[in-house]
Amino acid sequence: MANNNLSRPHVFHQGTSSRTILALHGTGGDEHNILGLAQALDPTASILSPRGMHLEGGMNRFFERYADGTFNEQSIEDAVNELAEFIDAAAYEYSIDAGNVFATGFSNGANTASALMIRRPELLAGAALFGSTIPFAHVDRVDLTGTRVWLANGDVDSYAPIDVSERWVDQLRGFGADVTLLRHLGGHEIWPKHVQLIAGELRA
């Protein structure tokens, strides 16, 4: 099932500004899971929140991972292609400003946002990524000039080790993105102070 049209389970909330936040939930979440995060980042923005359609042990994800925790990269490519088509359909249906879509996500959703950003850079103006890591073993160079990215991870998050996060930030900056790395003392979680900081900078 391609899930590339608006029959895919999703939520759309109309905002008062031209920005739309694409909200991508983590493993076990759904299209309602991080609406509060998206609203906290920008209360004036519209919110487009699709459900991840891959099931792992009955839990929603956007792409498959193997038993050892590594990512099925073909599944990531498929997820990106389906999301791109979904975004195009939603932009038409809901009159979304296609040049002002900002992604946010946690864990699997944040990894999916990263993959979307580097495979289809024209679709996203930026991203706030929480508890995420590099989606591909090798990332081909892409022009991310003008793209604003926040990467917010925990110092003791085994899912997103500090050295990997720093390497990912260096790669994104090498592609021209404006990247801020935020770290907290916790693990695989979202820190409210980071949300507040990003919200202030995003709306500045």
Briefly summarize what is shown:
With 204 residues, the protein is of the alpha/beta class. The chain has one domain: 3-Layer(aba) Sandwich (Rossmann fold), CATH 3.40.50.
Q: What does the model show?
A:
With 204 residues, the protein is an alpha/beta fold. The protein has a single domain, classed as Alpha/Beta hydrolase fold, catalytic domain (Rossmann fold, 3-Layer(aba) Sandwich), CATH 3.40.50.1820. It is built from five helices and nine strands; from the N terminus they run ββαβββαβαββαβα. It has a seven-stranded mixed sheet with strand order 1-3-2-6-7-8-9, sandwiched between helices. β2, α1 and β3 form a beta-alpha-beta unit. α2 crosses α3. It is globular and about 40 Å long. The model has no long low-confidence stretch (mean pLDDT 95).
The CATH top-level class label: Alpha Beta
Strand order of the largest sheet: 1-3-2-6-7-8-9
Q: Using DSSP, what is the number of strands?
A: 9
CATH architecture heading: 3-Layer(aba) Sandwich
- Helix/strand/pairing category: alpha/beta
Percentage of residues in DSSP E strands: 15-25%
Kindly state the mean pLDDT as a whole number? Answer: 95
How would you describe the shape? Answer: globular
Helix residue percentage: 25-40%
- Taking pLDDT < 50 over at least 5 consecutive residues as the criterion, the unreliable ranges are none
* Count of separate DSSP helical elements: 5
User: What number of structural domains do the residues give?
Assistant: 1
Helix/strand order: EEHEEEHEHEEHEH
At the fourth level of CATH, the homologous superfamily is: Alpha/Beta hydrolase fold, catalytic domain
Largest sheet: 7 strands, mixed
CATH topology: Rossmann fold
Radius of gyration: 15 Å
Roughly how many Å apart are the termini?
Answer: 41 Å
